[in-house]
Structures are given as structure tokens and as C-alpha cells.
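Request: Mind sharing a record?
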Amino acid sequence: MILLDPNAHPVIGHRGNRAHAPENTLASLQEAVALGVDAVEFDVQVSSDGVLLLMHDLTIDRTTSGSGAIASQTFAALRAHDAGARFTADRGRIFPWRHRGVVIPSFNEVVEALPSTLPFIVELKAPAASAALHAAIVRHGLQKRVIVAGFEPASTQPLRGQGFALGASTPDVARLLLPSLLRRRIPTPWYQALCIPPTHNGIPLPIAALARAVRTSSVVTHIWTVNDPSKALRLWERGVQGIISDDPALILAARSRSAFV
């Protein structure tokens, strides 16, 4: 899989084509695919009736016409809201996706609608979704084309050793900082990928040092969220593999003109 290839430089659509379409919706993911991304990234949670669905926040307030916590509502109730209602690319002057039938998609719908070979990075936003995601990966046979990541160790701990790649949690990355800066050898990690931002709480992370430290253990490094093509090129030069972008068309164009094709 390209997402685990240490010599690859994949461009990954962050929540789809988030700069131009409502995040974590089928429309956004399909736009990213049409642009030619190597993979897509999206977030998952579970409804009160156990349906695995795509959503970043713990509530639906920011991205839909509805409100309330995801965990307290059924999938049918969540799906009744307009998932394109709040999308704007010009700070609220127009809302081009309102009333176009965009809904919160289930994980099953996304897998069935996207190309059967497309790799995914799936971000677990709540530990309660771990079991449902595991079952869905097995049911759809996604083991060889998915990385499952999560900030909280409780999200990915139950998924270790289940036959698919996992991303390091936030505490795992924190434990890497000093050894990577001191160029010390790190113990063989349980994870296969770092999916990390360039900065944390405004402080730049030592991306080159981290990427170098884990590469000896065949762990890849994917960086989010990068929308500036020049930054993407610099990150590739520092040894990063994947670029996770809200605007993947820009990154794809920059890669096509670079040595990282």
C-alpha cells in the first residue's frame, strides 16, 4: 500500500477536498478522488444506535444544520440534517452547498461508493467507535488499504495486532521527541505510521528528526494539514512521506513539477 511505502510521497485528501466541499461528506471525498489523490483521510464516530459515521466534532453544530452530540442521537436523526449547510469558502458570503442533499454518510456508504483500491487514513475521534470500525474493516476486507489513527491511546489500543496498520497516539509521539532529537535508537514501535501536524499548540515539531527516527523501524510519517505547496515540498525534502491537505489539487500540482513524483 502506498501509505506504508517509505519511498512514496502520497497526497492525501484531508476529510476529502475540504477547501472546496463540506468535510467528511461523500461529495468531498469523491471530489478528492476525481482530482487524483493517492488516498483520503476522514474521521469516524458512532451514533447512539451503533452506526459508524463520518464526523470530526463530537457534535454536529459546526458542520450541519442541526445541533447536539453525535453519541446521543440515532443515525436516522443525524442524517436528517443538511451536512452542507455551513460550508463556506469565502467567510460566510455564500453557502454554495446548502439544500443540495448532502448528508452525514455512514462508513459503509463511503467504502461502497469510493474506488475499491483507494487507501484510507481513518481517524478515530472517540474510543466508543473502535469496535464498530474494527468490524467494518473486517467486513469490507480493508486490512491492506487502511491506517487507523487516534489521538487517544484508548481508541487504538483495542485494535493492536488485528491485521491492519495503526497510527501513533499523541502520548506515543511525545515519547519520541527527546530520543529523536538526540538521535537515539528507539524501541521497535507497535504502530506503523506517524500522522502528525507540523506544530503542536503553536510550537513547531522536529519533523525531520521524528521522520528519521522512525524510518529505521519502517514507520512512515504523514503530515496534516498542509495547504501550501512550498511547505509540502520542504516536508518531503525532510524525509516525510505523506502530505494530508485540505486542497490536494495544489499539492498534486506541486508534486508533478518536483523530484517527488
In short: Residues 35 and 50 are 33 Å apart (CA to CA).
